[in-house]
Amino acid sequence: MQIKSAAFVISNTDVIKCPDHNQPEYAFIGRSNVGKSSLINSLLQHKGLAKTSSTPGKTQLINHFLINDFWYLVDLPGYGYARVTKTKKKQFQSVITHYFEKRKQLYCSFILIDIRHKPQPIDINFMKWVGQKQIPFAIVFTKADKLKPNLLDQHVKDYEKALLEDVWESLPPIFVTSATKKTGCDLLLKHLSDLNQEFKKLNSSA
Ligand code: GTP
Ligand code: MG
């Protein structure tokens, strides 16, 4: 998919105040510092559109971006980083929970995982929670440039094994990306384009 336009729309703490629209919306979620905002900028080929920082806790609000005048990407605060204060963690958790529970426009979520780490309960539990809410999700591994190529495959396989050994019978779509090197961006955009087509079909026959 070609990105013809990408624009910041609005930031909110309250899901109730988020844009009222009937288009597909996709949320990027994951631990603080996993690279959500950086990957959004890489996908949209727009440095600085989403605010990034090496200090965890940079994104504190629900940020809506409108792409190609049709679909929305949402950059959310991260969860669970040890160096984020307890108060902030609670605040972020509440923003995230309300967003996922109440946002009817959310068509698919993308759960970002730092590819360097072993499967973490906090991420697996988040996937289970999203699954229980029947919100479709894909897994996006980030920071692939930080791992030697032979370890990339191994880490993905370990993760898949952990998911299948847990409650999952089948695996969600999985992508391996690097915001720095733009690895995996084309495949991720293709997936988003397929989801947009699916959304259009479903809504034209409704
Ligand atoms: P919060 O908004 O704080 O939750 O973080 P975030 O998940 O949005 O992460 P962000 O995009 O701000 O990136 C965090 C740090 O990781 C920054 O220093 C980025 O430069 C770095 N980073 C993000 N993606 C990549 C990547 O693909 N490769 C490398 N090497 N660094 C990355
Ligand atoms: Mg961010």
Description:
- The chain is α/β, with parallel strands linked by helices.
- It has helices at about 35-45, 85-100, 120-130, 150-165, 185-205, and strands at about 5-10, 25-30, 60-65, 70-75, 105-115, 135-140, 175.
- A seven-stranded mixed sheet has the order 1-3-4-2-5-6-7, sandwiched between helices.
- The longest helix is centred in the C-terminal third of the chain and has 20 residues, at about 185-205.
Blueprint (SSEs and pairs):
Blueprint: E1 6-12, E2 25-30, H1 36-44, E3 62-67, E4 71-75, H2 86-102, E5 106-114, H3 121-132, E6 137-142, H4 149-165, E7 174-176, H5 185-204
Parallel strand pairs: 2-4, 2-5, 5-6, 6-7
Antiparallel strand pairs: 1-3, 3-4
Guanosine-5'-triphosphate is lined by residues 32-38, 52-54, 56-59, 77-78, 142-143, 145-146, 178-180.
Q: Which H/E pattern describes the elements?
A: EEHEEHEHEHEH
Major beta-sheet overview = 7 strands, mixed
Question: Pairing-aware structural class of the strands and helices?
Answer: alpha/beta
Distance between the termini: 25 Å
Please report which band the strand proportion falls in: under 5%, 5-15%, 15-25%, 25-35%, 35-45% or over 45%: 15-25%
**Strands, total number:** 7
Can you tell me the overall shape? globular
- What is the average per-residue confidence, as pLDDT, rounded to a whole number? 95
Order of strands, main sheet, comes to: 1-3-4-2-5-6-7
